[in-house]
Amino acid sequence: MQVAVEMGSLTGGAPANLDIEELLATRLLVQGNSGSGKSHLLRRLLEQSSQWVQQVIIDPEGDFVTLSEKYGHLVVEGDRTEGELAGIASRIRRHRVSCVLSLEGLDVEEQMRAAATFLNALFDADHEFWYPILVVVDEAQLFAPAVGGEVSEGTRKMSLGAMTNLMCRGRKRGLAGVIATQRLAKLAKNVAAEASNFLMGRTFLDIDMARAADLLGMDRRQAEMFRDLKRGNFVGLGPALSRRPIPIAIGAVETQARSSSPKLMPMPDVAENVEDLIFTPDPEEFNQLPQRRTRPAPRPTTDILAELSRATPLSDAPLSKTNDKMVAPEISAEEREASISNVLEEILSDPQSGYRTDSALYQDFLVRLRMRRLSGSPMSLSEFRRRVAIARSGVDAETQDTETWATALSMCTMVTDDLQGVFLMLAYAAIKGDTCPSDARIARAYGTHSARRARRLLGYFEEQGLIIVHADQSGKRIVGIPELASETAPGAADEPDVISQSAEAAE
Questions:
Q1: More exposed terminus of the chain, fewer Cβ within 10 Å: N or C?
Q2: How many CA atoms lie less than 13 Å away from 98 in the CB half-sphere?
Q3: Do 346 and 447 fall within a single domain?
Q4: Strand 28-31 relative to strand 197-200: parallel, antiparallel, unpaired?
Q5: In terms of Cα–Cα distance, which of 422, 413, 411 is closest to 388?
Q6: Which residues pair with 481 in a beta bridge?
């Protein structure tokens, strides 16, 4: 199906159309200095095409979150763990929901890692979910820099790899990259070179004008025209636009960014007590100190090596040699299961394990199995996730043998893998009649420090009909699970998590 959206008008007043179906196959590069109208152009494209194609916007400044008000885009805050972002991206791809990944408030390195995690999850989706998506990346030079900057080399490679996958290999997976940059010279060449459609706006530096002219197939003497372009005017070229360079004046938009260009306004009258206003702090300022999100410190290499050096084979019997290979003695199924349980317990005993991704924990699990020379095929990732979810619930052996717990296990399959541990923890507390877990404890079980996300999880479970949340007369929270015919004892939602506090104190 051919769909053309009107981006604006040509010199003579004729409409300037962009073929969305062709754009999905050929990608788009937008370039222009700050204030040239790039964000306005992207907003026009997103508004005009929102009814035809799913959209994902990587938004470093939070300018595009206003699309949610009129067009229903889901706003995803970037201050989440990598596991959360990957899970959200996977579900967005599966359910075809347009979204804005807002990275406002994060530093550059955190923005790069969050964007890379999100894009990689979109790229790694199962084949059955390869629906077409318009992936718009504003300020693309941040995520695909031409040279290394102040960020770590690992972060730069991770972000650049995700952007390269998007522009070079994303087409077969339904991902159509639309990237916007202030300067072509700052954007990695292998990322920019994969676009076949171009919209070039105002720019002043000779190197950027020369690259823009080269991409549009123009004579370098014509590059001076880019200095004279007005705000919101671009020169377009490409199979989705035109076979020859054409000037386009971008049309109006229906939504506005939260931020806008500064406007001149008269200065206020000077107050008589200006010194008191400036030098005397407001009491409320002490309660509004900015809080920066901190990542858990990586485990020292020496600690890991010490653990590996302490690991010993389960059996004291000597290793046998077969075909020049050392082979561990055979052990019974019961011994093997006991060893696997011990390894899982060792991994999850680390207070920071809740904030590591399942894939990282799984790799750690496989290494420890090899160190113990456990024979047999390793546990699959899906089974490992289920065992981890059960272990994190804290269930005891007696409860595991009950029909009520079997019902809880069957119910947890109604949610995604990353939510099963939280649900089982609530189910176990309800079965035993224990105190309702606090927001901090629920957040730790989900792998985050955000109490707000913990409350959202409870709301999600309640929307799915899995739990009922209510309060007693003192305002303490109670979680009931109708299918289990049980509920938790009242508990304070704002009670701190003892384990997290102990871990922080130890660090």
A1: N
A2: 22
A3: no
A4: parallel
A5: 422
A6: 486
Q: How far apart are CA 504 and CA 389, in angstroms?
A: 23
CA distance 55 to 272: 53
371 shares its domain with 442: no
Whole-structure pTM value: 0.55
Q: List the one residue out of 54, 139, 133, 131 whose CA is nearest residue 102.
A: 139
DSSP string, 124-159: T--GGG---EEEEESSHHHHSBSS--SS-HHHHHHH
Please check whether residues 233 and 345 belong to one and the same domain. no
Helix 417-432, helix 439-446: angle, nearest 10 = 140
Per the CB < 8 A criterion, the answer to whether 139 and 179 are in contact is no
| CA angle, 330 then 331 then 332, to 5° | 130
Stretch 274-301: mean pLDDT: 60
Cα angle for residues 184, 189, 193 (degrees, 5° grid): 95
CB-hemisphere CA count at 13 Å for 44? 22
Contact 480, 467 (CB under 8 A): yes
In this predicted structure, the answer to whether residue 481 has a pLDDT above a threshold of 70 is: yes
Q: Return all residues near 389 (Cβ < 8 A) that are at least 6 apart.
A: 412, 417, 420, 421, 424
The CA distance from 265 to 145, in Å, is 37
Does the residue 274 lie in any domain? no
Write the pLDDT tens digit of every residue in 252-271. Answer: 998 887 665 666 778 777 76
Q: Is 326 helix (H, G, I), strand (E, B) or coil?
A: strand
Query: How many structural domains is the chain composed of?
Result: 3
Who contacts 47 (Cβ-Cβ below 8 Å, separation ≥6)?
67, 71, 253, 254, 255
Q: Are residues 53 and 168 in the same domain?
A: yes
Say if residue 352 is in the same domain as residue 500.
no
The CATH number covering residue 425 comes to: 1.10.10
Same domain, 185 and 55: yes
Inform me whether the pLDDT recorded for 48 exceeds 60. yes
Residues 419 and 365 in one domain: no
Q: Which residues span the domain enclosing 415?
A: 396-507
Phi, psi at 451, each rounded to 5°: -70, -30
